[in-house]
User: What shape does this take?
Amino acid sequence: MKRLLIGCAVSLVCGTAFADVKLMGIFTDNMVLQRGKPVPVRGAAAPGEAVSVAYAGKTAKATAGADGWFSAVLPPLDVEKTGKELVVKGRNRIVLKNVVVGDVWLVSGQSNAEMSFGWGILNGAAEMAKAKDYPNVRAIKFSRATSFFPVRRRACNDGPWKVATEKTLPKITAVGYFMARELNAKTGVPIGILDNNWSGCFIEPFICEEGLRTVPSLKGVADSLVKERARMIAWCGKVAAMKEGDSFGNLPPMPSAPFWTRQHNAMIEPLVDFPICGAVWYQGCANTYDGIHRGYAPKLKALVAGWRAKWGYDFPFYIVQLASFRAKTTDPAGGGGFAGVRNEQLLAAKSIPNTGLAVAIDIGNAKDIHPKNKYDVGYRLSLWARRDVYGEKDLVVSGPIYRELKVEGDKARVVFEHVGSGLFAGEKGPDTPGVMPTATPDGKLRGFAIAGADKKWFWADAVIDGDTVVVSAKDVPAPVFEGAHIVIDVPPGGEEYSLSFVTARDESMSVRSVLHFKS
Assistant: This one.
C-alpha cells in the first residue's frame, strides 16, 4: 500500500530534495544546443544551492528553489561546429563533452517517422557508411510514456545524445537523419534531432490543452479534460486517505484515462524549455477515419498552435503528406484509403502560417504501409527549411500543389502553386531514392476524374496548358465545383494513386498532392 501512495504523490508533486547537482536527461555529451536563443540549462540540486553554467565563454547562474529545481539560462549562442565542454558547477562538477551549437529539429509522429535504418531503409548500408562525413548530425531518442497531467520536470529520453554513425543509425529516425544530413551538408550548421515518436499513435494524444482551445470545434474537449483531471486528483486524494492495512478491494473506482494530451504531457511537455529551430510531423495513418469526416485538419491546427504556444514562438512546422498505399483504384470516384487524410493535410498546410508540405504520394508502396524510401522524404523536408530558415529564397521547395479550380464551360482548369520552370507528365520509381522524375513516354496525364451536379465521377482527359491542367470528359458537359474543397463526395473506394502525375522540372523532385480533383 505504501508504494501505491508514494506513486500517487509523485504523479502530482515533482519536487524533492537533492544533494549533488543533477541535470535533466536531455543534457548529455554530444548534444546540440539551439543557436540564437537563450538556452535554459535545467536540473535539480539542494534547495538554495548556487549553480553556475559555462559554455564557450558564456556563463549563467541560478539558485535552486525550495523544490530543489534550478534553471540557469545561457545567453543566445552563435553556431559552434567544434565540440566544446559545457560545465555545470554546484556542490559537484559536471562536464559534458563534445557539445556543439546549431539547429535542433523535433521529429514526431507515428511509425513512418520513427522508422530507423534498422527497419531496412533502401540503400541503408551505403547511406550509413556516409555518416562519418557528417559528425555534426546528432540525435537523441525519447521513450514512450503517457501522463494524465503535463509533466515539465521529467527525464523522458531513452539515452544520451549520439553522433550519427554506422553504429548508431540503426536506431535513429531515418527521415529525420536524411533531412538533418541535407541541411548540414548545404549549410555547415550542426543539426540535432529530437527523435520523439510513437508507432501506431493517433494525433489526439500529442495535442496539448492550450492547442485545443485555439480551435472552436475542440474547446469542448479541453473542458472535458479539465473535469477528467479533477476527478483523477480527487481519486488520488481518496487513495492517499486510505489507512495502512486497507485491502486493494477498498480502492475507489479509478476514473477513465483521458485519450487526448497523454503523450504530449509526458513526451513533449518536458522539452518545451529546450529551444528548437522547428518541427516535423509525419503521422496520419491511424487517423484515416478523420480524413473521411473532415476531422484531421482541425486537430493538426490544434497540435501546431499548442506546440508553438508552449515554446513561445512560431517555429517552422513541416508536414509529411501520407504516401500511396494499396493498389491504384479503378473507380473514378476514388476517395478511399488515405486520400481524405491527404486532403486534410493539404488544407492544414495551406491555412497554417509558416508550414510546408512534403508530398510523398509517388514514393509509397502498394503492399507496405512503411515505404523504405525515406531519403526522398527527408530531402523534400530539407528543401522547405533551406528556403524558409537558411535563406535560399529562390529555391523551388515543392512540386506542384493544388491551389484552385476554375470551371470554364465543359472544362475545368486546375491551377497549381510551385510550378517551377514548367509542368510535365512524369513518372518516378518509388524505390529510386534521389532520382528525379522523368517524362512519361507518351506525355499523357492519367488519374484525373471529373463530375457534374449529379456527383457521378468519370475518368477525364487532362492536358497541360502552361502552368495549369485542363480537364474534361464527354460524359460531364458541365463540371461542378463546390466550396473550398475539391472533394464533392467521399464514397468508399480504392486508393487514389496513379502511375503518372504532374511534376515540375526542378530540384524539388516532389509531385503535386492532387491526383484527382478530390484529393
